[in-house]
Design brief:
The chain has about 575 residues and is an alpha+beta fold. The protein has 25 helices and 15 strands. Helix 6 crosses helix 11, helix 7 crosses helix 11 and helix 16 packs across helix 17. It is globular and about 80 Å long.
Length: about 575
């Protein structure tokens, strides 16, 4: 049997780090990992925690045969495997009728997306009931759909999740999956308009362009050539230059996306409207402007492109052009309209692209939730949390700051649940044990999220402060407000030697996982996340039913200042990563 063959090889090293003779030695820990990895043993336990190393190739570890062999087997009886984690959660849920949660964390490229996919596969097939086949298919098909719209190629990972996801899989009293619900957050929408060198935009753009579907391309007015569209052209040659590592087959995965849309009960009209919006975003990136000679604003240099976008979005060309060339503000109850400068028009174009795509993604998740909605009471739940891993790139910006903050929150939960509470339990039961020191990252979280003097609070204050505000003034504010802190450094506060390692427009945080240097450029703009009112009004008047839904009239009527991206990240992290 497959499990027996795996067990025969699993005598290399120690399969549970708890059994390491020198458990305090980092060298012993890494040496054990290396020994096992070299024998293609990517899984090792630390008690109930599973450590996984990404092999970046298929090791045939997720066959239906293996899936069946791990079902209803004691946790340590078979070699370490992600199926064992899923099985333990499933049968604990059934036996105790208590909700369970599986947390998948790790740095970018560690294999979290694949692990999550395999856990979901196991949970979906855990029941032998034939009555819930449709629900199983829908649960499984939610993955390729959300990956198409929410995943992208980075320098670390060909299929990197660029959003966070918490999924509840709901079961009836017999243990059969009957539905689910997905919470999504922190889509990296800045990727829509620009990507780092060697990276790609979201998969769906390439899937459509390389689909070979002539009717679709013609309807969307697309050439089918990646190089023809600014938002994706920066990586047009990525496949040719990286054939040995590039694993995404866009044409084949477009077919998987279409299958997922059908399985998840998207209507023909909705599918058409979804692709119209994606096509419009591709065209939006090609829209250019020139300043008026008299200095009274700007004008489009390729109005034909604007007309294509307007048609795909279901708005009139006149309304669309007006929204991109002017802005309206409310003053003393009245509206004042003024022309946009060239810089403002370019900003508005990109802001519109990011906002439309971000809202479309949330709409897709909402539709999936409607399809998976449970129509019965008394269900038990297994939660599955999969978010971006800790990220350290050559250039780290606002997105990495938010992502790494979320990972700090997750680390705090890990500390509380696997270390602190476990040691407190030993004390209660009078068990003699040796104190294990561990780093408590609360000091880093306080630095970032303190309501009065945290970094997010400073960022929000700078965004609303009157006068000249810039990324440089934000960095100055942090230097003064934070001062000498062992987990924060900027050029102004650095000593002579440290100044050689950091630029004037950077700051460094000492995270639990290591040092990360952030470039402050774009922090103010990305945190403000401003979308001009005129664009919202034009979008709300669309004949595209999805556009009308994602730009509700209530939002346009609301006079309050929108919540900043940083504060939204803080609120989401506080509510969804709560013990």
């Amino acid at each position: 049997m497959a499990a027996e063959a795996l067990a025969a090889r699993d005598r290399i090293g120690v399969q549970d780090f708890v059994l390491l003779e020198d458990f305090r030695s980092l060298d012993a820990f890494t040496d054990n990992l290396k020994k096992r990895f070299n024998e293609k043993l990517i899984y090792t336990y630390i008690g109930p925690v599973l450590v996984s190393m990404n092999p970046y190739k298929d090791l045939n570890l997720y066959t239906d045969e293996l899936c069946a062999e791990y079902r209803a087997v004691e946790f340590f009886k078979l070699p370490p495997h992600v199926f064992a984690i899923a099985d333990t959660a499933y049968f604990a849920m059934r036996a105790d009728r208590r909700d369970q949660c599986i947390l998948v964390s790790g740095e970018s490229g560690a294999g979290k997306t694949e692990a999550t996919k395999q856990i979901l596969k196991y949970l979906a097939v855990a029941s032998k009931s034939r009555e819930v086949g449709k629900i199983k298919d829908q649960l499984l098909q939610s993955n390729p759909l959300l990956e198409a719209f929410g995943n992208a190629t980075t320098t670390r990972n060909d299929n990197s999740s660029r959003f966070g996801k918490y999924m509840d899989v709901q079961f009836d009293y017999q243990g059969a999956p009957v539905g689910g619900h997905i919470l999504n957050y922190l889509l990296e929408k800045s990727r829509v308009v620009r990507q780092a060198a060697g990276e790609r935009n979201f998969h769906i753009f390439y899937q459509i362009l390389e689909s070979g579907n002539k009717a679709l391309l013609q309807r969307l007015n697309l050439t089918g050539k990646v190089a023809d569209y600014r938002y994706v052209a920066t990586t047009a040659n990525h496949k040719k230059n990286s054939e040995t590592v590039f694993t995404i087959k866009d044409d084949a995965q477009f077919k998987e996306t279409m299958d997922a849309l059908r399985t998840l009960a998207f209507s023909t009209q909705h599918v058409e409207e979804v692709f119209n919006i994606v096509g419009a975003v591709l065209h939006l990136g090609n829209l250019d402007f020139d300043a008026q000679a008299d200095g009274t604003g700007c004008k489009p240099t390729n109005k034909d492109v604007g007309d294509i976008v307007a048609k795909l979005l279901g708005v009139t060309p006149a309304a669309f052009q007006s929204a991109l060339l002017s802005k309206t503000i409310i003053v003393n109850g009245g509206k004042v309209t003024s022309p946009l400068t060239l810089e403002e028009a370019l900003y508005g174009r990109d802001a519109m692209s990011k906002s439309i795509y971000d809202r479309l993604f949330s709409w897709l998740v909402s539709h999936v939730n409607h399809t998976l909605e449970v129509k019965r009471a008394n269900t038990a739940v297994i939660g599955l949390l999969d978010i971006y891993g800790f990220e350290v790139f050559k250039v780290n910006s606002f997105e990495q700051f938010c992502i790494n903050y979320c990972n700090e929150k997750l680390q705090q939960i890990f500390i509380e649940l696997t270390l602190k509470l476990e040691q407190e339990e030993y004390d209660k039961e009078g068990i003699q044990w040796e104190q294990i020191d561990y780093f408590n990252n609360k000091i880093i979280l306080d630095l970032i999220e303190d309501k009065n003097k945290g970094m997010i609070a400073m960022l929000d204050e700078e965004c609303v402060r009157p006068g000249q505000v810039s990324d440089a003034s934000l960095l100055e504010k942090m230097a003064v407000g934070i001062g000498q802190h062992k987990h924060f450094l900027c050029f102004e506060l650095a000593g002579r030697d440290a100044k050689k390692t950091i630029e004037r427009d950077e700051f460094r945080l000492v995270h639990y996982a290591g040092d990360v240097t952030y470039n402050v450029k774009g922090f103010i703009e990305k945190n403000n996340d401003l979308l001009f009112r005129d664009i919202k009004e034009a979008s709300q008047a669309s004949s595209n039913s999805i556009m009308k839904e994602i730009f509700p009239n209530a939002e346009i009527m609301d006079k309050k200042r929108p919540v900043t991206a940083g504060t939204l990240d803080l609120r989401m992290s506080a509510s969804r990563f709560r013990l």
